[in-house]
């Protein structure tokens, strides 16, 4: 576009560029416009991460933290069987939650994108799915207590139906409730990107598949799922990073009886063991970034916006 | 219109269950917050009353929740305005494909995927090492921006990727300055999306927990206050608070959505007369 303009009117463009000088360069203007963003991200993202990396090599006494270059925090972390187990549990939470979020999220998005014919209904139902995202996670976790508790609705219903004699103890404060809460909180991070990609699928491709005799299931497996992969990947990145970085859902929904890496960090912080917390945080960050790097091999995010 | 397959009804049932799963628990505490004064944290209801809502206004029962609410409200508005302004500027910048924009883009994505507790811990450490006092309006504000800005920017990227440049070219051809083009052409076109960015900015800040935990200082925001209550409050007063703040969130969402509709309607009425033969 700019090139055709330039050939059509070389004179005014050239003189305008001369008049504006270096201030007119799109690179300079671009950086000026991106300046507030850059400052915020450098101050509150890059600098904090750098600080954490530095502090992870410091030493701590009971009362203070001492600048040093020591790898003892890492040695302790990697030498601790508890830490390995907790990292394992974190991956397990991430994997199981991801599986449920993906299955439920994909089904919901598929229903909205391909089975709802009126656009108004589509938008309304989509909004209905996204509204909880703008409400408090803490409250949404608290909301499960009357449902899952020992005398909660779930147990009462099962007893009334005669399915069980004793209330189930594992409904609340267990791995079950932790994963339930993750799925409850994060499925919409799957629904939104998958729905978004599905809406951009050319409907004539689906007609073509059907005209060639594909069944609904074949169309789903051979046309829709491959074309929805970018959305699935973006949703996966969201769910996996949110679950791996979490500490509050695990603490609250397990009644402090289960652990993940986030809780390891927050426990150290509670004990003012900042260097040790920082070392665990660095390892968590590397784990998350490696996981994302692997996922990003499957999708180019910049193309998907 | 073609006949619905049995799969459609199956999926509709699945969708209905999903909605029940999403909203059921919230509705449950909504009902339980009207528990009678003798009632507990689970069913059965022992009478129906607004006792626990009144309890929220008794100082000794719940601590400083109204102060926390005021702080969350102010912080939410600060974050909202900053998110809108910075995201629009960032969106405009990225259209220019300037040197280094690729690196900045990955920094934005990093901001989205880096676990919240790292931001919280890191900002807290910087402030303590520098000898500054952590406060919700300084360290808390900055930490929350690392969560709201990526959402605002992703929305702006999506908006500008679909933006028809010929509107701006038309304005420039008619002699509009850069600022005039932005103010009278670009801004009105992107206005509904800005309402969306504002909604993200406010609500994500208002509900933020992990990033504020170590950066709020001695005065709690509302989510921190509510979390504190979960460890020592064992009466339905916590449901009453949950119901009120969720109702407040719903109100905010409704206000933003109605504004989008109003803006779109006004645009439809006062929009272009091109092609109408006037």
Automatic annotation (TrEMBL), chain A:
GO terms (BP aspect): transmembrane transport
Name of the protein this chain belongs to = ABC transporter permease
Q: Which Pfam families match?
A: BPD_transp_1
Sorted UniProt keywords: Cell membrane, Membrane, Transmembrane, Transmembrane helix, Transport
Q: Its topology with respect to the membrane?
A: Multi-pass membrane protein
Q: Where are the transmembrane segments?
A: 28-58, 93-113, 125-145, 170-195, 274-299
- Organism of origin is Pseudooceanicola nanhaiensis
Family annotation (SUPFAM superfamilies)? MetI-like
Q: Enumerate the spans annotated as ABC transmembrane type-1 domain.
A: 87-295
UniProt similarity note: Belongs to the binding-protein-dependent transport system permease family. CysTW subfamily.
UniProtKB/TrEMBL annotation, chain B:
Q: Does the keyword Transport apply?
A: yes
- Identify this protein by name: ABC transporter permease
Family to which this protein belongs: Belongs to the binding-protein-dependent transport system permease family. CysTW subfamily.
Quote the PANTHER family the UniProt record gives: PUTRESCINE TRANSPORT SYSTEM PERMEASE PROTEIN POTI
A GO BP entry is: transmembrane transport
Which branch of life, at top level? Answer: Bacteria
Q: Which organism is it from?
A: Pseudooceanicola nanhaiensis
Provide the alphabetized UniProt keywords: Cell membrane, Membrane, Transmembrane, Transmembrane helix, Transport
Q: List, alphabetically, the Pfam families matched.
A: BPD_transp_1
TM helices/strands, residue ranges: 7-34, 73-92, 104-127, 147-164, 185-206, 237-263
């Amino acid at each position: 576009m700019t090139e055709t303009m330039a050939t059509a009117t070389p004179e005014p463009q050239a003189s305008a560029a001369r008049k504006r000088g270096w201030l007119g360069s799109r690179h300079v203007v671009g950086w000026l416009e991106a300046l507030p963003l850059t400052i915020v991200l450098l101050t509150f993202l890059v600098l904090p991460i750098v600080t954490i990396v530095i502090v992870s090599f410091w030493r701590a006494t009971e009362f203070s933290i001492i600048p040093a270059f020591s790898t003892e925090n890492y040695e302790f972390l990697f030498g601790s069987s508890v830490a390995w187990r907790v990292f394992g549990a974190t991956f397990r939470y991430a994997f199981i939650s991801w599986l449920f979020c993906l299955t439920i999220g994909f089904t919901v998005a598929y229903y909205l994108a391909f089975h709802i014919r009126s656009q108004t209904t589509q938008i309304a139902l989509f909004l209905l799915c996204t509204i909880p995202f703008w409400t408090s996670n803490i409250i949404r976790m608290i909301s499960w207590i009357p449902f899952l508790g020992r005398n909660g609705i779930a147990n009462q219903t099962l007893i009334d139906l005669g399915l069980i004699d004793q209330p189930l103890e594992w409904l609340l404060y267990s791995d079950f409730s932790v994963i339930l809460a993750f799925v409850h909180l994060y499925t919409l991070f799957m629904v939104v990107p998958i729905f978004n990609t599905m809406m951009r699928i050319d409907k004539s491709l689906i007609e073509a598949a059907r005209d060639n005799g594909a069944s609904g299931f074949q169309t789903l497996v051979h046309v829709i799922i491959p074309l929805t992969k970018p959305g699935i990947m973006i949703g996966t990145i969201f769910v996996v990073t949110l679950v791996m970085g979490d500490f509050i859902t695990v603490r609250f929904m397990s009644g402090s009886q289960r652990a993940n890496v986030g809780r390891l960090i927050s426990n150290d912080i509670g004990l003012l063991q900042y260097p040790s917390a920082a070392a665990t945080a660095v390892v968590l960050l590397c784990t998350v970034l490696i996981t994302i790097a692997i996922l990003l091999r499957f999708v180019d995010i910049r193309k998907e916006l | 219109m073609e006949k619905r397959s049995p799969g459609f009804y199956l999926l509709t049932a699945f969708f209905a269950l999903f909605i029940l799963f999403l909203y059921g628990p919230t509705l449950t505490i909504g009902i339980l917050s009207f528990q009678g004064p003798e009632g507990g944290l689970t069913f059965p209801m022992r009478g129906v009353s607004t006792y626990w809502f009144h309890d929220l206004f008794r100082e000794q029962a719940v601590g400083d929740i109204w102060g926390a609410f005021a702080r969350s409200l102010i912080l939410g508005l600060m974050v909202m305005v900053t998110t809108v302004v910075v995201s629009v500027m960032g969106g405009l910048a990225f259209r220019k494909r300037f040197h280094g924009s690729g690196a900045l883009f990955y920094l934005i994505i990093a901001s989205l995927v880096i676990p919240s507790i790292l931001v919280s811990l890191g900002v807290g450490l910087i402030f303590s090492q520098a000898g500054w006092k952590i406060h919700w309006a300084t360290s808390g504000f900055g930490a929350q921006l690392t969560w709201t800005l990526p959402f605002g920017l992703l929305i702006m990227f999506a908006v500008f990727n679909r933006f028809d440049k010929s509107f701006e070219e038309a304005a420039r051809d008619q002699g509009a300055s850069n600022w005039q083009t932005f103010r009278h052409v670009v801004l009105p076109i992107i206005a509904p999306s800005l309402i969306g960015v504002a909604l993200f900015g406010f609500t994500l800040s208002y509900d933020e927990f992990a990033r504020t935990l170590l950066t709020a200082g001695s005065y709690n925001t509302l989510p921190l206050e509510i979390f504190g209550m979960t460890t020592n409050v064992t009466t339905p007063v916590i449901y009453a608070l949950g119901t009120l703040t969720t109702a407040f969130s719903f109100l905010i969402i409704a206000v933003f959505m109605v504004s989008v509709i109003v803006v779109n309607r006004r645009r439809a009425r006062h929009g272009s007369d091109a092609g109408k033969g006037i």
